[in-house]
Amino acid sequence: MELKTILFYLFSAILLFAALRVITARNPVHAVLYLVFTFFNTAALWLLLGAEFLAIALIMVYVGAVMVLFLFVVMMLDINIDRLRQGFWSYLPFGATIGLLMVAEMALVLSSEYFSTASFPDHPISASVSNTKELGRLIFTDYVYPFELASVILLVAIIAAVMLTLRHRTDTKHLDPSKQIAVKASDRLRIVQMSVEKPVTDCAPKEVLT
Asked: In this structure, are 75 and 136 located in the same domain?
């Protein structure tokens, strides 16, 4: 067995273990750290496959930016673990159904023509061709529809996350920008003319106590 094959199985086994610990860890901080570990092993697999751009992008974007932000958010939030565990078994059938549906969708995607061996070129790509350039060409030519579909799904997920976390507070002051722009100087400033007070001159001098 070659060294490359041994490394592939090693990183794959660690990847599966770390991904399983992401959803089974009791501490949210530990789950985020396991997810970071998962990304590292994924980047290692991409390096073995010759996709250096994807590996570096995964480390720099997800591990270096997104997951660090997630880690800070999880550590700053006061999460009640016992409250999150309440009703776990009641939601388990629904969660298992969604999980099986996602597995079926992934199986359909992987069995489509986009991932078949016929879609790959018969001749190997020259070493002088940049894999970044080739990736960009494939995304915007052969895989443009799945790429656009993925962008729409991500947009829907962002909007859903914003709506789920939106809370209308009544103890905050709301300012209407249109009213602020339409305000006039006469509405905010009033000049009042006051009469000048006369100085008091008839006061007796104070007695000095000796």
From this structure: no
Q: Does residue 45 lie in a domain region?
A: yes
- CA 48, CA 6: separation in Å to the nearest integer? 11
Q: With respect to residue 19, please indicate whether it lies within any of the assigned structural domains.
A: yes
Q: What is the DSSP letter of 115?
A: G
What is the CB neighbour count within 10 angstroms for residue 36? 19
Q: How far apart are CA 22 and CA 33, in angstroms?
A: 8
What is the tens place of the pLDDT at every residue in 162-199? 887 777 767 677 777 887 788 787 777 778 887 777 66
Range of the domain at 152: 97-119+131-164
pTM: 0.57
**Long-range CB contacts (< 8 A, 24+ apart) of 18-26?**
26/81
Per residue in 91-110, pLDDT (tens digit) is 888 888 998 998 898 888 87
* Amino acid (1-letter code) at residue 91: Y
With a pLDDT cut of 70, the percent of the chain lying above it is 80
